[in-house]
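Protocol step 4 of 6: structure prediction from sequence.
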Amino acid sequence: MKARARPLLGTFVEISIELENCQSAMDEAFEAIQQVQDLMSFHDPLSELNQINRYAHIKPIDIHPWTAQVLRIAQDIYTQSGGLFNCGIGHRLVEAGLLPRNIDVFNHSLGGIEDVQLIKPEKIQVSKPVCLDLGGIAKGFAVDKAVEVLIQNGVSSGCVNAGGDLRVFGNRPRPIQIRNPSSPQHLIDIGTLHNGAIATSALYFAHRDRKPSHIINPMAKEANDIYFHFSESFSIIASECVYADALTKVLALSKRPNHPCFDYFNAQAIKITA
């Protein structure tokens, strides 16, 4: 097994593959992850995402096929989750000091992912100003793109792990462990994963840097309910990491392992109490 890691997506991304002489395939996989970051990073003021936030309510904008794909998936999950997953919460994260103030988000009545219109396959407009943040879905999508590149380059088995957003492919199952939410240094064995993905939402180290850590509740009506704190660990197993990543937020907010959207996306929910 050959493994390499790079700092990307706000974490360390590790790619492990069976083949020994596949340096070029790993390089291309990391390049795909870098491209997702360049397109969809809220932190990069020049990213395509920030161009959408600045201008899409003024005029239609041409976007990359990958950005369009992520927005379509986000809209589907928004619909199936009854609004629990909504990428239009960037302004809340800006207010909390968790995202940079790249645009002026306070002089508008802002919309959400439901206000995004793909008027052509790769052209977008929005019906009202938005402050989209794709941080809850793009990391999983980047993992999937890396896996696609590896398979296209003849890699038959391996794993891509982006800070806990993990996808395994090929013939070799991988043992999976989840941190104990009440004792994060201890790991819980939950079995093995074969040709699938897993992602976890948890606040294990919420106070490690003295900054607040929470999930935004997009459906909250009262200001006190916007920032959702929890002590459990919420994991989703799915065929693709983009769905595992996004659906962890649905599980964390609903606390319903049997939420109907998990069946819709052929996903399995795992909740570990503190």
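Step 5 (inspection) to follow. Residues 52 and 159 are 32 Å apart (CA to CA).
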